Amino acid sequence: MDLFTKAAELGIQTGFHDGQGQWHTTGEAALKLILDAMPVRTPHRFVESPVVVRAGEGARTVLNEAATFPLSWKILDGVKVIAEGTTEGREITWPRDLPAGVHRLRLIDAKKFPDEAPFIVAPSKAFPGEFDRSWILAVQLYGVRSERNWGIGDFTDLQDLIKLAASMGAGGVGLNPLHALFDDRPAECSPYSPNSRLFLNPLYIDVEALPEYAANDSGDTLSRLRDSKFVDYPDIAAAKSKGMRAAFEAFYADPTSGRQKAFAAFRAERAPLLTRFACFEVLRHQHQTAWWDWPSEWLLPDDATCDAFRAGPDGKEVTYIEYVQWNADLQLKACFDLTTKLGMPVGLYLDVAVGVQSGGFDAWNEQIAISRHLSVGAPPDALQPAGQNWGLAGFNAAGLEVQGFAPFKDMLRASMRYAGAVRLDHVLGLNRLYVVPHGYDADNGAYVKMPLEALLAVTAQESVANRCVVIGEDLGTVPDGFRDHLASWGIWSYLVMMFERDERYAFRGVDYYQPNALVTFNTHDLPTYAGWRSLYDLQLKRSLGIDPGESDDARRYALQMLGEALRAQGINTEDFYAVAHFLARTRTRLLAVALEDLLGVIDQPNIPGTINEHPNWRQRLPATVETMATSIDRDALHIATADRSSSALT
C-alpha cells in the first residue's frame, strides 16, 4: 500500500488549497513522518466511526457492506452489558433509554468477524447557561497591578476584580488561560503554550494568603516588582518559589495540622493524575532533559512506579508540587465561590489552549492520544503566506478513540472545574487539525481528520455535568455548515466586531449577530480600541518589520465605517463606551468588555509572529485594582451595558 492510500484510510488529507486557491501536495517524506506519528489502529469493519446517540432521541447506524447477517451487537459499560440485540438488516435502531457515558460497542457478524467501536450517549445539547443576556469583564490576569501583589496579578486580585465587575453589573470575569507552564523556565510565559492543561499556573497563587506563610525580608524586591513596567517573570518566580517553599516547610513539619486532612482529600480526589504530574515535575527538574531521554522506567507513566517514587527519597519534593497545586486550586475555587455568592450568572470564563508543548506533562502522560512529533498550525493563507507552526502538540483521532476519549474528557473537566463558561481555542481542530512534522516548514503539513461528532458529544457531556457554557473560537476560514453543526450541539460562536464587516467593509448592524454567541470588539492578538483608533498598531508592526496587512487609508475608512454603524444606532460618540453600547444592543447572549479598553491601553497583549521583539504577555495595566473604579467611566459603562445587567434567568 502506498503512502497516499494509507494516509487516506487514516483520514489524512494529503494536500490543501492555500489562501490563493493553489493546490499543495504534502511531500512524501513529511507525509511518512505524519503517518509514523499516528498510533496503530485497526480500521472499523462494520461501522464508519464511533457511534453517537443523543439521550432521549432515536438514532440509527447503517452498517458497512462488509457485514453479513444475522449480526449480533452488545453495548458494554466496562464489563456490564447495558443493551444487546441482533439485526438481519444493514441498519440498527438503538434503544432510546441508554445511560449517558462513553461505552463500547461490540459486533459479530454471521461469519464470526468481530468489530468494536466507542458508543457515546450524550445530552442532546451542551449546557445552555442560566442567563438571558449578560456581559463579562475580560482580563489578562498576569497584567493586573495592586498595592499588595508581587508584580503579577494573582487570585486575590481576581477576587477584587470580581467584586468590581459585580458592582458594575457584569455577570462574570473572563481570563487568559491559567494552565500550568514550566516553573523552571518562567520567561516562557505564553499562556497558550502550556506544560499541562490539567493543572494550574502557580504564579497566580497569592503567597501571602497561604496560612503557613510567614513574612520575610524581601520588601525591597517586592516593591521593585510591583513598580516594574512589565511582568518580570524570572524574579517573580524566584520570589514566589522561595515564599511557597517556606510555607510548605511549615506545613510539612506539622502533620497534625487541620489542613493536612483537606490536603489528603485533594490528593485522593485528583489521583492518579496529580501524583503523575508531581512525579513528572520532580523528574523534569532533576534530569533537565526532554522526557523521551529519561531512564527507561520513566519513558511511560506508570502509577505503581510513581507511588514507589513518592514513597522514596524524593517523596517530599513530590509532595511539594502537590501542595502548590492544592493551594492554587483552593484560591481559584474561592474566586469561583465568590462569583456564586455575588449572584453572577456567568461566573468565571476561562480560555482553553488548542495544544500543549511536546516536552510537557500532558504529552508524556498521553503518548497515545497526543502526537509529540507533530506541531499544530495552519496552512499558507493571505495573512501568513508561509503558513503557521504554533509549536504545540495536539490530540490525534486514533489515540483518543483507543482510550475512549478519556484524555479529552480529562482536559475539559479540568478546564470547567471552576468555570461557568469556557472558550475552546481553534475549535476547528475538533473537525480537522493541520499538523506539521518537526523539522519541516509550515507549508509542508497536512490536515488530519478528527472525530468531530464524538468530540462534540463528549463536550456536551462535560458541559452539562459541570454546568458550563462552551464557546468555540471559530474565527478564520470555516467550512460551510460547520458553525451550524456546532450550534446544533449547543456550542456557541465567537464573534469579533473588528472582523464582522460586509463586502464593502462596512461594519455589520446589531441584527446580524446571532444570540448563542460571545461578542467582543477585539482579542488578545488584536489591537486595543485605543491602539486601533490611533493607528498605533500599524505603526508598531511596521517598526518591527511586520506587514500589518492594512494601509493607513484602509484604517481611516474603517474608522469612518465604524462611525456610520454607531450613528445608525443613535450613538453619537465614538469612544470605546460607544462601541460597548453598540455591542450590548446585539442579540448575543454574552458580551466581553476588555479591561485594557476601559483603561485606554494603547498596546495589545500579544503580537502574533513575535517573541522578543514585543513584550508579549508581559504588559501591566496602568491602574491598580484599588484605583480602577475611579479610572473607569462607570456612568458611561452603565449606560452602555444597562440592558445586560442582572440578567440571570428566573
TrEMBL record:
UniProt cross-references to Pfam families, sorted A to Z: Glyco_hydro_77
InterPro entries hit by this protein: GH, Glyco_hydro_77
Alphabetical UniProt keywords: Carbohydrate metabolism, Glycosyltransferase, Transferase
Source organism, top-level taxon: Bacteria
UniProt keyword annotation of Iron present: no
Family in the record: Belongs to the disproportionating enzyme family.
NCBIfam families attached to this UniProt entry: malQ
An annotated GO BP: carbohydrate metabolic process
Native source organism of the sequence: Tardiphaga robiniae
PANTHER family referenced in this protein's UniProt entry, alphabetically: 4-ALPHA-GLUCANOTRANSFERASE DPE1, CHLOROPLASTIC/AMYLOPLASTIC, 4-ALPHA-GLUCANOTRANSFERASE DPE1, CHLOROPLASTIC_AMYLOPLASTIC
The protein, known as: 4-alpha-glucanotransferase
This enzyme's EC code(s): 2.4.1.25
Reactions listed under catalytic activity: Transfers a segment of a (1->4)-alpha-D-glucan to a new position in an acceptor, which may be glucose or a (1->4)-alpha-D-glucan
Enzyme class: transferase
Record-level Gene Ontology MF annotations: 4-alpha-glucanotransferase activity
